[in-house]
Write a structure and sequence with these properties.
Blueprint lengths: L1 E4 L7 E4 L8 E4 L2 E4 L9 E3 L8 E4 L2 E6 L8 E2 L4 E2 L25 E6 L5 E2 L3 E6 L5 H15 L5 E5 L9 H15 L4 E8 L7 H6 L9 E5 L6 H16 L4 E4 L4 E6 L10 H14 L3 E4 L9 H5 L5 H20 L10 H5 L5 H8 L8 E5 L9 E5 L5 H11 L3 E6 L11 E5 L2 H6 L6 E2 L3 H4 L1 H16 L5 H4 L15
Helix pairs in contact: 1-4, 2-10, 5-13
Length: 492
């Protein structure tokens, strides 16, 4: 008999754990419902009759309204369910107590302790380009320098982008802020900044935004003034590598900064991978560490749950501002705030943004939201931080790294090969994906459906500690490392 999972006792739909054919009986807890059509795994089946215009409940909350009457056993999806989201809203602060593990974890990892007390999970030389014109130059330097420095450091990597010239105002500031924050990252034992010379994103202005105490481990090069930019760049990398050489030191979970992200989600993401990652966020914050979440458009419909966990009224106001400001960003561009999920999400069983958001916010666990930071800014508080950034995988993951995340937990139901500046641990929402794409996936959260959350929690935490101590992720093995910058302004 096929199975389906009902998240909350009050839900009017359940998520199928198996493909079903019309007439198949589906077990939902102690109940059985008969499918009236073929329905794919990860999609929703109605558990009871739902009247037209009535709310459809999943996770104990409305995920939209029925656009037509729905009978028990029917497939509930885009043909009969529509979003209830509109524009900006007025919110009320209704504080809810945090719920964290009672005993902090004693897990440890071997990291690189920096002079300012932060701990990196890698000791690498990062080459940052100020402008797209020198992107290939930076990559050539990284390739040649990596062979020269060998295993003195964990690696030499170039992070390039097409921006930095023909940008104005806040758009240029965003590029500069991201680059400055990456230059301060604890996973970068040293940083080489490669510029062209005539770009808007001038090296001098960029260096002025980087704390002076970091300058000792940064070198800069203007290629228009260099006789042989690749040779000069390699020499500077070798100099940095010699200065950065240092051993790993055993530290506690409180020294980890965890970024959480989802991409290519399916109907099981909110049932397996995302809540599992939320448990990891809780373990880190309960131990005194830091977790950071973002993808602001993917909290629309679930934002009140986060707002109620604000540390105080001031943090609540900042969450409201970020959420409503992002909604206005959509409206100003003539787009509905509900312009999500993606085609892949829909194919995987997610119908409305409310449904996607209620599943996505679970990555943030249950801790108090202790701070809210803007795009490109760096984390300054222990606990759980909300970061302003869009849902785009590459843009938001780059922002997580720039904020100071030393590892990213990336959940996916459809799969993606992408990797980012810091170790990116790919977590499959279903065992089929993990089996089909072992070259992409680091952990199978589908095991939750067989072994339960406690066993999966322990296994994932062990995997995170191994990666933080130097074990490669799939993306690292594949050479998948990139950045993307949020482009919001005009281009000259």
């Amino acid at each position: 008999m096929a199975r389906a999972l009902r998240v909350d006792p009050g839900d009017s739909v359940a998520t199928l754990l198996d493909d079903v054919r019309s007439g198949d009986h589906v077990e939902v807890g102690r109940s059985v419902v008969t499918a009236s059509s073929d329905i794919g795994r990860g999609h929703k089946i109605a558990l009871q009759p739902i009247a037209a215009a009535a709310p459809v409940l999943k996770y104990g909350f409305p995920i939209g309204r029925a656009s037509t009457a729905i009978a028990a056993g029917e497939h509930v999806h885009a043909h009969n369910l529509k979003t209830g989201l509109e524009g900006t809203l007025a919110y009320r602060f209704d504080p809810a107590p945090a719920s964290l593990p009672t005993a902090p974890s004693t897990a440890t990892f071997d990291g690189y302790v920096r002079a300012d007390g932060r701990v990196g999970t890698r000791n690498e030389i990062w080459i940052l380009s100020t402008v797209g014109c020198v992107a290939r130059t930076a990559e050539r330097i990284a390739t040649k320098a990596a062979a020269l420095v060998g295993d003195t450091v964990d690696g030499v990597h170039a992070f390039t982008h097409p921006h930095g010239c023909s940008q104005l105002g806040n758009d240029l500031d965003g590029t500069r802020t991201i680059m400055a924050s990456l230059a301060c990252h604890p996973n970068a034992g040293g940083v080489l900044i490669v510029g062209l010379g005539c770009e808007e994103n001038q090296i001098k202005a960029l260096m002025a935004t980087i704390p002076p105490e970091r300058h000792a481990m940064i070198r800069t090069m203007t290629t228009q003034l260099s006789g042989d930019e690749v040779e000069e760049g390699c020499a500077l990398v070798a100099e940095l590598a010699a200065l950065a050489a240092t051993p790993r030191t055993t530290v506690g979970l409180d020294r980890l900064v965890l970024g959480v992200k989802c991409g290519g989600s399916d109907g099981l993401s909110g049932l397996t991978a995302n809540p599992l990652v939320g448990r990891m966020s809780d373990r880190v914050t309960a131990a005194g560490g830091r977790a950071v979440f973002t993808e602001i458009p993917e909290v629309f419909g679930a934002e009140q749950l986060l707002m109620n966990r604000a540390a105080d009224a001031g943090i609540f106001d900042r969450i409201v501002h970020v959420v409503n400001d992002f909604k206005q960003y959509f409206i100003d561009h003539g787009e509905p705030v509900s312009e999500n999920p993606s085609p892949g999400n829909v194919a995987g069983g997610i119908t409305t943004l409310e449904e996607k958001s209620l599943g996505a916010v679970q990555k943030a666990g249950r801790a108090t939201v202790s701070d809210v930071i803007g795009y490109g800014e760096r984390i300054t508080h222990d606990g759980l931080t909300m970061l302003e950034a869009p849902g785009n995988d590459a843009v938001s993951s780059t922002a997580l790294a720039a904020a100071g995340a030393t590892a990213i937990l990336f959940t996916t139901g459809r799969g993606t090969p992408l990797g980012f500046p810091v170790p990116t641990i790919k977590i499959a929402s279903n065992s089929d994906l993990a089996a089909r794409k072992p070259g992409w996936i680091d952990f199978d959260a589908g095991a939750v459906l067989v072994d339960g959350f406690p066993a999966a929690e322990d296994a994932l935490l062990a995997r995170i500690m191994a990666v933080a101590s130097g074990a490669e992720t799939a993306a690292e093995r594949n050479g998948e490392r990139e950045i993307a910058i949020w482009k919001r302004g005009v281009t000259l």
